[in-house]
Amino acid sequence: MISDLVSLTYRSRLGLADPAAGILRILQASRVRNPRLGITGILLYNGFHFVQTIEGPRATCNELFAQISKDPRHSQIVAFGLTKLEQRLFPDWSMRLISRTELRETMPELKLLDLKEPEDIERLHRRILASLSAPAESE
Question: Rounded to an integer, what distance in angstroms lies between the CA atom of residue 41 and that of residue 27?
């Protein structure tokens, strides 16, 4: 049911001994699990923090966030709450990683991913979508 569609965004501190391998495992697992659950979203990584947005049915997002909250790879978790959606922002991505390099190019002012308000999340999403949908420059 579309009226049950929500977005949930959180920030957490990374707790991985080998960040590159750990993020790869997270992405691989997400890309297998999320389509089954009806989850889409993005994962931002700046070298220290994750900011993840998951979209899907309310109950599924709540359950997934509860699992993430218990995951030792995450600490200092700050949830920005559920936002009701009319349609998905990231419908084609079971989980899309926005790398440190892409993040710097898109929003250089967010060095620490220090989002504080829902407006920060909305601005971040708009900028990411705009940068990813912009035509590539010719060489």
Answer: 11
